[in-house]
């Protein structure tokens, strides 16, 4: 029998309500693999009670975001049970153990819902965003640990390696976004730079207050449980951003012409109006 691989425990839930025994990285083999986007983190389900998300690109801060939201709001998020890390070949692999939330994604349900149910869901989601936007900000634009925001633009683009920390003001955030786009090469690079030079400081300018933002609000990240309750998942890009950030993400993510985009924009419009 081969010796079990060693791993580090970064966090573990020691409350009396925590189910035991918790799975570890050594329990992954043979577990049910769940479908996910190609090239993204792997997901496995264990005993119909746990989900383990793991991979070299999984970051502990995703779980820390969920712990923060659970502690600071009543927004339903998966319960975080443990965070592990271990070395595998040349990479550090992070494992996030959460509760298995049984239900159906809003993406799969949306087309079958009547107008009244869609409106009800939108109102519920709006209350969740209200809570996130009312959180006391830390005085900077960045992640909850004081580093750069977790959006891909600050980690997967040219110039991103020059960013070492958070941004003190919205103007500083805007200047860096424009700088990052100005370093891009390829088709339409110059046009994109000119577009953001105009839109960010003028059209999308806010009162400068950092807002805690999910930053990947799509139907696939809303689980509708059998009793109708909603749970929001996938907090890996969440940080303190400008008030418009989730709206921007909706445009970049693309949308189907089935009414959801308009519903989402109505939620954001109502929230943005409260900031003015």
From TrEMBL:
SUPFAM superfamilies assigned: Protein kinase-like (PK-like)
Top-level taxonomic group: Eukaryota
InterPro entries named among the record's database cross-references: AGP_Transferase, Aminoglycoside_PTrfase, Kinase-like_dom_sf
Transmembrane domains' residue ranges: none
Residue span(s) of domain Aminoglycoside phosphotransferase: 49-246
Gene3D superfamilies associated with the record: 3.90.1200.10
Name of the molecule in the record: Aminoglycoside phosphotransferase domain-containing protein
């Amino acid at each position: 029998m081969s010796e079990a691989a060693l791993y580090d425990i970064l966090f573990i839930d020691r409350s009396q309500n925590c189910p035991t025994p918790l799975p570890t990285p050594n329990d992954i083999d043979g577990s049910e693999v769940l479908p996910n986007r190609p090239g993204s983190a792997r997901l496995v389900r264990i005993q119909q009670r746990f989900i383990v998300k793991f991979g070299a690109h999984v970051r502990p801060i995703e779980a820390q975001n969920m712990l923060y939201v659970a502690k600071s709001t009543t927004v339903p998020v998966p319960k975080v049970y443990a965070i592990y890390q271990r070395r595998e070949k040349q990479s550090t692999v992070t494992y996030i153990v959460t509760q298995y939330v049984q239900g159906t994604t809003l993406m799969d349900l949306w087309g079958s819902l009547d107008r009244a149910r869609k409106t009800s869901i939108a109102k519920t989601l709006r209350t969740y965003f209200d809570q996130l936007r009312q959180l006391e900000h830390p005085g900077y634009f960045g992640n909850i640990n004081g580093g750069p925001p977790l959006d891909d633009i600050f980690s997967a683009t040219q110039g991103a390696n020059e960013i070492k920390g958070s941004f003190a003001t919205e103007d500083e955030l805007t200047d860096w976004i424009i700088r990052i786009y100005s370093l891009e090469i390829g088709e339409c690079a110059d046009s994109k730079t000119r577009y953001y030079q105009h839109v960010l400081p003028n059209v999308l300018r806010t009162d400068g207050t950092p807002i805690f933002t999910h930053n990947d609000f799509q139907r696939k990240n809303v689980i509708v449980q059998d009793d109708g309750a909603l749970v929001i998942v996938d907090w890996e890009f969440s940080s303190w951003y400008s008030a418009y950030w989730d709206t921007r993400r909706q445009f970049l993510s693309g949308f189907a012409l089935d009414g959801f985009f308009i519903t989402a924009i109505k939620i954001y419009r109502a929230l943005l109006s409260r900031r003015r």
